Here is the input.
Amino acid sequence: MRVFQLVRRLTLLGGAVFSNPALADRAAAERCATGLQPMGLQIFQRALPGVLGGASVADAVRSAALSMAVSGAVSRDGARQAAEAAGGCLALTGRPG
Here is the structure.
C-alpha cells in the first residue's frame, strides 16, 4: 500500500514538473540570452522577473531599457538595439509580447 502511494505521488510530481512549460521556456530564454551583447544581457536580466511575474515582454523591456537610458548607463539608440535583442529572448518565455 505504501509503495503504491509513493509511486502515485512521484508520478503526480513528475507530471507537474515536466508539464510546466514555464520551466522549459525560461531555460530556453536564458540559453538565448547567453548570446546577447552585454547591454542586451543586462536588459534581459532586468526584464526577466517582470515577464515571469506576468508583465508583457514589451512593457518589461521598455521599463528596463528606459531606466538604463535615464540613468545614463546607455544611449537611447544603444538601448533600443539591445532591447530588441533582449526582447527576442524574452519572447521565448511564452509570455505575451
